[in-house]
Write a structure and sequence with these properties.
Elements (H helix, E strand, L loop, with lengths): L5 H12 L20 H13 L5 H8 L3 H11 L3 E4 L1 E2 L6 H17 L13 E8 L10 E4 L7 E2 L8 E9 L2 E7 L8 H8 L3
Length: about 200
């Protein structure tokens, strides 16, 4: 009952016939070693810190590791995710934020917390450059963000071959006027009184 089967005997006969001298198991390739090691994890972390827009293919080419391993490193070990930057109209300094807050408090006092009828005479506006360029797509603006980091915001505007300064104004009933500035003209008190207010 304990004798090896005919196929096992035949297999060993062929092995010894080919020159094998030992009955010990030979080393086999087997399952490849994992590349998800601290050195590779740190290398991926550094690539992301250097370029938040780095792609899977760029990581693969740089570190010579598979997409599966990259995915495992990014999500299981580094806990990063790729998100779109949130657009904000202006990036204000603390001094600018304080000045705006102070002005709002002053207006609330002046117009009796908004109950005065004089609030109907208030107009607000802002001017901005309108650029003639191809805006960055949502996909192009995605960046890698680590778990403990804040979501990125974006105020950068691309280079443009042409641009036009536009001023928009609103009253209590909505849009009042949109005024385009002439070339090389700046927004100042003279522009408001001579060009903007008449329109």
């Amino acid at each position: 009952d304990k004798a090896p089967s005919y196929s096992t005997v035949k297999n060993w006969y062929n092995e010894f016939n080919r020159g094998r001298c030992s009955i010990q198991d030979e080393s086999r390739a087997g399952r490849p070693k994992s590349v998800v090691v601290p050195e590779k994890i740190n290398a991926v972390r550094e690539l992301i810190k250097q370029d938040r827009h780095v792609t899977y293919r760029e990581i693969e080419a740089s570190l010579d590791i598979s997409m599966t391993s990259i995915n495992k490193i990014l999500h299981e070990h580094l806990s990063v995710k790729k998100i779109c930057s949130r657009w904000i109209p202006h990036n204000l300094t603390n001094a600018q934020k304080k000045a705006r807050g102070d002005w709002c408090k002053e207006m609330l006092e002046k117009y009796i917390q908004g109950t005065s009828k004089a609030v109907y005479n208030i107009y607000t506006g802002d001017e901005s450059w309108i650029y003639a360029y191809e805006p960055e797509t949502k996909q192009q603006s995605t960046v890698w963000v680590f778990q403990d980091e804040a979501k990125p915001t974006k105020v950068v505007r691309g280079r443009s071959t042409s641009k036009q300064m536009i001023a928009c104004f609103f009253g209590i009933n909505g849009h009042v006027a949109t005024v385009a500035l002439e070339q090389r003209r700046t927004v100042n008190s003279e522009w408001y009184t001579t060009i903007c207010l008449p329109e």
